Amino acid sequence: MSSTTEETNHKTAAPAATAAVGENAPENPLQAKADELGVLGNEFFKEQNYERAIALYTEAIETCPNERFYANRSFAHFRTESYGYALSDADKAIGLKNSYTKAYYRRAAALMALGRFKKALADLEFVAKRCPSSKDAQDKYTECKKMVNKIAFEKAISVQHQEKSVAKMCRDLEFVSIENDYNGPKLENGKVTLEFMKSLLEWYKNQNKLHKNFAYRILCDMEALLKTQPSLVEITVPDDAKFTVCGDIHGQFYDLLNIFEINGLPSTTNPYLFNGDFVDRGSFSVECIFTLFGFKLLYPNHFFLSRGNHESFNMNQLYGFTGEVVSKYSQNMADMFTLVYNWLPLCHLINKKVLVMHGGLFSKDKVSLDDLRAIDRNCQPPEEGLMCELLWSDPQPQPGRVPSKRGVGIHFGPDVTDEFLKFNNLDYIIRSHEVKAEGYEVDHDGKCITVFSAPNYCDQMKNLGAFITLKGNDLKPKFTTYKEVPHPSVRPMAYASPLSLMA
Q1: Neighbour count for residue 174 (Cβ, 10 Å)
Q2: Which of 44, 114, 152, 274 is disulfide-compatible with 49, CB 3.0–4.6 A?
Q3: Where does the pLDDT of residue 161 fall: very low under 50, low under 70, confident under 90, or very high at 90 and above?
Q4: How many angstroms separate the CA atoms of 166 and 170, rounded?
Q5: CA nearest 290: which of 235, 244, 249?
Q6: Which residues are within 8 A (CB) of 302 and not within 5 positions of it... i.e. 6 or more apart?
Q7: What DSSP string runs through 107-142?
Q8: Is-catalytic flag, 310?
Q9: Angle subtended at Cα 147 by Cα 143 and Cα 151, rounded to the nearest 5 degrees
Q10: 171 exposed, middle or buried (CB, 10 Å; 0-12, 13-18, 19+)?
Q11: How confident is the model at residue 16 (pLDDT cuts 50, 70, 90)?
């Protein structure tokens, strides 16, 4: 690896190309064929056709295994958020050549994405030592070291944090008086009203900030409300009533506004469930979360929120929400969000027939709804177990279960879905968590539905967004799709940690 760190610079658009055929071509014809496949894979990578690139790198590996192909496939898996596969490929590259610096960088990126900062630090230290003149390598090592130290500090005072609540933190705050020139939305007698919410949406649309007095009060009230909720919330939809389920929003506030434009504002007659991942990546996460929290306070029995894997400390540190809250408010408020997120329900049951969770099903059989009700959710998501799998798992077309490509949770097949539904007398499940080209996907003979509500995810995926509506009398899902709408010129990940840009 050169001191210019072409291989580690996060601005590099595609994997380093293998030698062109005919130019210093190896004598081994299998190597020549593999190199040709690797170059073609790189071309598809540049076009963001990562699945095709992965297929070509795989063919190159099967033709003539080489650490370069594993490292490049690791990079492509990373771009599809298959962090478990990215980690495995980086390991294989290092196994073939333990001095291959690029593979250590790729492995560090995958470990970061999984929140395993301490292990990533060891790889970044290796890269930094091998590339002493690379500013990128040195900066990533320094940032990771800061993250590890911060987490160690948080752990050291975790006992104190466990005794904290947002309400206690609010009582300790000395709210400054509201400035005379503030003409934005104001709570009425400290409470959210419909007029406040309409004013807030318009205020946010024009890129203004809610006064911190009201922001803190909303957080205080949200914690108090969420603490009264069970881990599995039961929802009753009357026969002729409409109910809407939305998937990931990921800080795309202007697309959230578009959902309300298409489907109507939340109300007692127009209830919604937002199924996790409200924040991160998109750079209007603060606006999204206060909008959603505001409607939850306004309509506590007709507006529902499920926790996603991004409503967590590690994800928020890496993918932008913490940075955005600190930029727009303070570190104290970011800490408060972490505490509030711990109380978000994990799943919802509609008319005792449709279970909705962010991720998916489980690594063991005969999980009952009572098992889900019994989950103690007031914590950061663990790396295994029912809570983890509710937030992280994904469906697969093949029967059975396999470890997740994400590195957390599992992949579950149609037989797993069938068994779970029969055991619990359910009709189907709705989940989110995955980008889908059409905004939704129906799997497992209609018994596992994915909905994703952030169109053109991260301003680059070109996917549609979608939401589901159903009526209480038949619970038949109806899908509405939509394209992205324009937003102010703030790029996605604008507030993210530099570590999130490693790949």
Answers
A1: 4
A2: 44
A3: low
A4: 6
A5: 249
A6: 266, 267, 268, 270, 271, 272
A7: HHHHHHHTT-HHHHHHHHHHHHHH-TT-HHHHHHHH
A8: yes
A9: 170
A10: exposed
A11: low
| Structure-token pair, residue 146 | 């800061």
Task: Spell out the SS3 assignment of 243-287.
Answer: EEEECECCCCHHHHHHHHHHHCCCECCECEEECCCCCCCCCCHHH
**Residues 342-381: tens digit of each pLDDT:** 999 999 999 999 999 999 999 999 999 999 999 999 999 9
Distance in angstroms between the alpha carbons of the first and the last residue of the chain:
16
Residue 355 amino acid letter: L
Distance of alpha carbon 478 from alpha carbon 299, whole angstroms: 24
Nearest alpha carbon to residue 458 among 287, 229, 171, 250? 250
- Compute, in degrees rounded to 10, the torsion defined by CA atoms 282, 283, 289, 294: -120
Q: What is the DSSP letter of 466?
A: E
| Reported confidence tier of residue 382, pLDDT bands at 50, 70, 90 | very high
Number of other CB atoms surrounding residue 369 within 10 Å: 17
- What are the DSSP calls for 168-217, one per residue? HHHHH--PPPPPTT--S---BTTB--HHHHHHHHHHHHTT----HHHHHH
Cα 249 to its chain centre, rounded Å, is 9
d(CA 234, CA 2): 58
Average pLDDT of the chain, as a whole number: 92
Q: Which of 77, 250, 302, 310 is catalytic?
A: 310
- Confidence tier at 195 by pLDDT (50, 70, 90): very high
Locate tokens 């071309």: which residue?
43
CA distances, 359 to each of 347, 349, 386, 393, 448 (Å): 10, 15, 11, 5, 11
Provide the token pair at 107: 């492995």
Which residue type occupies 149? Answer: N
Structure tokens, 326: 């600190």
- Rounded distance, CA 400 to CA 357, Å? 20
pLDDT band per the 50, 70, 90 thresholds, residue 147: confident
Residue 239, pLDDT above cutoff 60: yes
Among candidate residues 273, 258, 415, 435, the one with its CA nearest the CA of residue 354: 273
Q: Which of 118, 58, 120 is nearest to 83 (CA)?
A: 120
Cα–Cα distance measured from residue 365 to residue 386, given in angstroms and rounded to the nearest whole number: 11
CA distances from 480 to 179, 290, 310, 464 (A): 43, 25, 24, 10
User: Residue 174: pLDDT above 80?
Assistant: no
